[in-house]
């Protein structure tokens, strides 16, 4: 695949081929640090469908002062988690917009089995709606740990380095600005381990749910970005083939 996935076209074995697959709803899964956001952007360009992030939806509803946003803001002000029911309503409203007709990339939703069951039920009630297919990006634990804990940022130009995989020319110093690089407070091994535990606890049931339905695939995430994207596209095309 070329470095940029153009809509409806991909490079395969040195030749361009047309894809007539209607993507439908695609759930991207993967542990913290696997690159879900990067891959979502590649798929958005390839299929010309939107990425739907619950984080973005939440921020937009709060900023716009919608009824759902006001309710969510009050809950967060109390230090509580926004309940599934409220997130479900935000997603339902977003899915009514016309740009979702051919499909969309789900990022951060469904995060729990309850959300997955709600979404499946909603789509099943729509005659022409395709069901969710889930693709999990796989990267081994130690590699994820190096990606997260090795990350360093320039506070001036925001360039991101990695002490293991993309180090600066001078240790601890930005190549561009000469500023001292910093590590984010949540890029530590302790925080990473906690995020991994939370991911496993919440997402494992979602993975097993879609695996049992025959709508689940895994791709190797320890490859160049275009190759990972090609693997996801192939997985979606395979899962969308009639049984």
Structure description:
The chain has helices at 36-47, 54-64, 67-77, 84-94, 113-124, 141-149, 189-212, 225-239, and strands at residues 9-12, 15-18, 24-29, 51-53, 103-107, 133-138, 151-153, 160-162, 216-220. It is α/β, with parallel strands linked by helices and 243 residues long. It has 2 domains: 9-140 and 204-239, 3-Layer(aba) Sandwich (Rossmann fold); 151-186, no CATH class. The strands form 3 sheets. The protein has a 5-stranded parallel sheet, with helices on both faces. The chain has a two-stranded antiparallel ribbon with strand order 1-2. It starts with 8 loop residues before the first strand and ends with a helix.
What's this entry about, in short?
Helix content is 43%, strand content 16%. By secondary structure, the chain is of the alpha/beta class. A hairpin with a 2-residue loop joins β1 (9-12) and β2 (15-18).
